[in-house]
Automatic annotation (TrEMBL):
Organism: Arthrobacter hankyongi
InterPro entries with a match to the protein in the record: Cupin_2, GPI/OXD, RmlC-like_jellyroll, RmlC_Cupin_sf
Domain Cupin type-2: start-end pairs: 53-118
SUPFAM superfamilies: RmlC-like cupins
Keywords: Metal-binding
Name under which the protein is recorded: Cupin domain-containing protein
């Protein structure tokens, strides 16, 4: 029998948590995350998927993952995406692939929240290496 309670999770029921990473100069990572698929939550052995929210004025620290690739799908807002040595103005509907080891981060310099789906190619325990 399929365990729907383990396989299906809703952002409104799970709720958001504040990002908890620290940058190279002691600055706090900013934004909210709600994990929807992971090893612990869903039994996934190959990916982690979350709903991210970056509020106006917040900055998700530039960092990289030496052991995992990542993607963003922008649902709402127009964040400034820091990707390698480039900055890109994203818009709703953009899918952004971040290869393993690539420096990346987000800045919400707009007036509305940025919502995005975030996926990582490991179910848990990937490394977050701050680059700022």
């Amino acid at each position: 029998m399929t365990d729907i309670a383990r396989l299906v999770h809703n952002v409104d029921q799970q709720g958001f948590a504040e990002l908890d990473k620290i940058g190279l100069n002691g600055q706090r990572d900013q934004g909210l995350v709600c994990t929807l698929i992971s090893r612990d939550l869903s039994g996934s052995d190959d990916l982690c998927v979350s709903w991210g929210r970056i509020l106006p004025g917040q900055h998700h620290l530039c960092h990289h993952h030496p052991d995992a690739s990542e993607f963003y799908v922008v649902i709402s807002g127009t964040p400034l995406v820091h990707l390698g040595d480039t900055e890109y103005r994203a818009r709703p509907g953009d899918g952004i692939y971040i290869p393993r080891g690539t420096r990346h981060g987000l800045t919400n310099d707009g007036d509305t929240a940025v919502d995005l789906v975030v996926g990582v190619s490991k179910p848990a325990d990937w490394q977050f290496v701050p680059d700022e």
